[in-house]
Specification:
The longest helix has about 40 residues. By secondary structure, this protein is mostly helical.
Length: about 450
Amino acid sequence: MMRFIRLLLLSIGLLASSPTAFASGFIRDAEIEKLLADYSYPLFRAAGLNPNTVGIALINNKSLNAFVANGQNIYFHTGLILEAEDPNMVIGVIAHEIGHIIGGHLSRKASAINEAQRPALVATILGLGSVLAGAPDVGLALITGGQHVVQRKFLSFNRAQESSADVIALRLLEDTGQSPNGIIRLMDMLADQEVLSEVSQDPYVRSHPLSRERVANYTRGAEQSAYRNVEDSAELRHRHKMAQAKIRGFLEHPSTTLRRYPTRNTDMPSRYARAIALHRRGQTDAALTEIEGLIAETPTSPWFHELKGQVNYEAGRAADGLAAYEKSVALAPDQPLLLIGLATTQLSLGEGSDAMSQEFNRAAENNLRAALRLDSTNTTAYFQLSKVFGQMQRVAYAEWALAEYYALLGRREALKHAQRALKGLPNGSPEKIRTTDILQIARAGQADR
């Protein structure tokens, strides 16, 4: 019966759209994650949140959406960045989502759903009883009426949450000296979609019920702001356009990107997008020509050097890309994804058995361990680390790295690799201690099943 109620809630659009968003896949990119962090961190601090405890993730989805889920984690669709005309629009959305976090709305929403389900459950039971008793019209009316009660109760609760988050958003923008105009423009644009069918609406409209009244409330609140006319810095606007160019370069069809950013456009975002599109087309030399021009103009950008390294590596020119990756890490040593990119290149150069190959493998190990110190749950780092240990003939350590990899993914293969690793790891080593923990957790999970 509870499964039926869940299906009922899905059918009337009351559950958040995040499950379908997850199906679209996560994107990891150091440059865009750094931009989102720079948008978010002042707001986190103003809200009394530790930036290190709030997760930020990017999802490959063209729709305009952002949402809070799984505790203090904010998920952004690529569509939000692409549709936002300027950083202030994204910052306004972040302020609103933080409002949900500090308001404890996620935990309360679960309670509200459970409370709203009760009348629907009772109505469904009574309705089914009427159907079985030979009164199908009465039964159907009871079931439908129960659905309407659920919908009214939950939407009333949701509107209250959204209003609360709106108030918090305005306060956070004021506390950080930022304009509320961006969120007003975004809300105004989305409010027009309320007349559309759910198929045509952006998910943000469905998961964040909008109304002209909410837009008016935002506007009235903004009138009191001393920062109403403050604009984003030129640097932040430039980084926003670069992020848009990068997303389009990697996610759109290369022909679409090249039409959107024709060669007559000589601005930096256009050249950035073209370089990526040319690389994806297999035109490596043309892509590198664009990238070299970008590096000549901004030699201190770690992202241009990273792209040069990636293009060379993916074109089978790892040796040519090594120095570019090394430069990117030197410019941004605290970025785990850059360290992983460098280590992956070193790993491909360490496939032999000669002394130079082993030197590359040791360097790759050091860089992957450094990445994990910065991002302890990075599955790619553990997987690459298992390859490094395999090339170095350190089998027990390779098994440990695979155990960590599968444990983070919640896969039962973690138990098998942990058992193998335990036999060869030195007593008292951090890897053996971690492997013992993985075994205990995996066995406990099996016992629960």
